[in-house]
Amino acid sequence: QVPLVESGGGLVQAGGSLTLSCATSGSTFSLLPIAWYRQAPGNQRELAAAITTDGTASYAHSMADRFTISRDNAKNTVYLQMNSLKPEDKAVYYCRTYWRLVEYWGQGTQVTVSS
């Protein structure tokens, strides 16, 4: 089992910033690739950013210039720094990983951006 717990969501004005955290327990964290997804109401879940075990980051095209994903293996945490937030960034943000061919998702954290 790989329990993932997201936090850091909330209400922010357009143009503001938020940092989301995805934390887990256990000694395998450094071996886990982690991705952030988001799902807006009525939309499919979409990939926002991902980070490999060696720290290589990748982003969805529409978020690459505003979002930064990073990991702190000592804290068993992956972060998603989101800047210049737009109303269309409103969504539930989830982190995802897989371990031994099993996929794990967190419960999500709500991000709301007011215009």
Secondary structure topology:
Elements (H helix, E strand, L loop, with lengths): L3 E4 L2 E4 L4 E7 L9 E6 L6 E6 L5 E3 L7 E6 L4 E6 L8 E9 L2 E4 L3 E6 L1
Parallel strand pairs: 2-11
Antiparallel strand pairs: 1-3, 3-8, 4-5, 4-9, 5-6, 7-8, 9-10, 9-11
Structural account:
- The protein has 115 residues and is mainly β.
- It contains no helices and 11 strands.
- The strands form 2 sheets. Strands 2, 4, 5, 6, 9, 10 and 11 form a 7-stranded mixed beta sheet that branches. Strands 1-3-8-7 form a 4-stranded antiparallel beta sheet, with no helix packed on it.
- Strand 4 and strand 5 form a beta hairpin.
**Class based on secondary structure composition and strand pairing:** mainly beta
Distance between the termini: 40 Å
Global outline: globular
Strand tally is 11
Percent in helix = under 10%
Q: Helical segment tally?
A: 0
Outline the low-pLDDT stretches: none
Nearest-angstrom radius of gyration?
Answer: 13 Å
Mind summarizing the main beta sheet?
7 strands, mixed
What is the residue-averaged pLDDT?
Answer: 96
Strand content: over 45%
List SSEs in N-to-C order.
EEEEEEEEEEE
Task: Write a concise keyword list for the protein shown above.
mainly beta, seven-stranded mixed β-sheet, four-stranded antiparallel β-sheet, globular, 11 strands
Short summary:
With 115 residues, the chain is mainly β.
